[in-house]
Predict the structure of FAD-dependent pyridine nucleotide-disulfide oxidoreductase.
Amino acid sequence: MTSTSRHVPVAIVGGGQAGLSVSYHLKQRGIEHLVFEKESAAHTWSTQRWDTFCLVTPNWQCDLPGHPYDGPDPHGFMKKDEIVAYLKGFVAKVNPPIREGVAVTRVERREDGLFSVRTSDGDYTASEVVVASGGYHTPIIPRMAEKLPGSVTQIHSNQYRNPAQLPAGAVLVVGSGQSGAQIAEDLHLAGRTVHLAVGDAPRCARFYRGRDVVTWLADMGYYEMTVDNHPLRDGVRDNTNHYVTGRDGGRDIDLRRFAREGMKLYGALDDYHDGTLRFRDNLKRSLDGADRTYNGINAAIDKYIAENDIQAPVQEPYTSVWEPGEPVTGLILAGSGITSIIWCIGFTPDFRWLDASVFNGAGSPKHKRGVTKEDGVYFIGLPWLHTWGSGRFGAVGRDAEFVAQAIQKRLGTERFALKFAV
């Protein structure tokens, strides 16, 4: 690092809602900082979502710092363009000191205790570094994809926009988490023949006993539960999100109903060999497990209603509307009509640019509500960083305030005047 390096007290890597929330709270404290964003502020919501994408949690849960949802439909679910507009409003309110189009390529500790921050636009030094780049960096596409014939179009869920972008023919959707289930529904509603390789994702009801399930769970304190108090502890961070949708005002996603309407369901996709797609014999177990979770959440709501003597309409437990027959563990691709595959099996994080002793053996950051044991290194915006809402609009602001307080304690506001010229 040369003597011409520019210094900033706090470097925030990532300009999504997490990084911008930290910027908001640092500005409140008069702490100089700079946000580095390799694309544009909050860009992923407009560039990596399909056309019919909408929130799966009610609008009232959108509570970014200084920018709560104040639209006309608090119990509705914002669509893609509405989410983008909401975030643009947040960016305007924060007015962050941000370098858009600047990628951070390396961060490491110097001998003098500062961090060297190498970017695509030159070198910086920083006293504190906030990692706000999220955990969804590299799309997961299995090696078996390399064996599939070139005539089959393959995309990842982050590339999917609408059914019209795919060639005519059937579509294989691999994975039934939130993205996979919603994309499968999008294709199904468009009249496409859909084959769905079902994973172990749980599901939940959209509405139960007269209210949105999210509203019940909020009243029950679920969203205030911290990772330390969760029965799974840190293991909850690896959980797959429940599939449900806010589309058309919100409804359940019931894969069994889709199957009854013609969607082809299989167990998890295991391999492609000798022209045949190989599936595990776990479809029934996966569907039954998802339904157990669904009914289990509803049973917890029943208990809460009874204990608090709440008047609410009675609703029966979910019962299966379709059962799988003899398991299909092999499907000859050439005769299936499948012309495209959408991989909906998630992402892997990539923190290789950060040289710091803050990772466990699996490459995941070790922290306490975003504060690591290495002085001056923080994380924000990761799933279950502290609570269920840490990676969402609902609670990322509170985590950002906690991180900003930790930074303030380390730096001391007396030494740093507020300077926002970039």
User: Anything to note?
Assistant: The longest strand covers residues 122-131. The chain has eight helices and 22 strands. Residues 138-343 form a domain with the FAD/NAD(P)-binding domain fold (CATH 3.50.50.60).
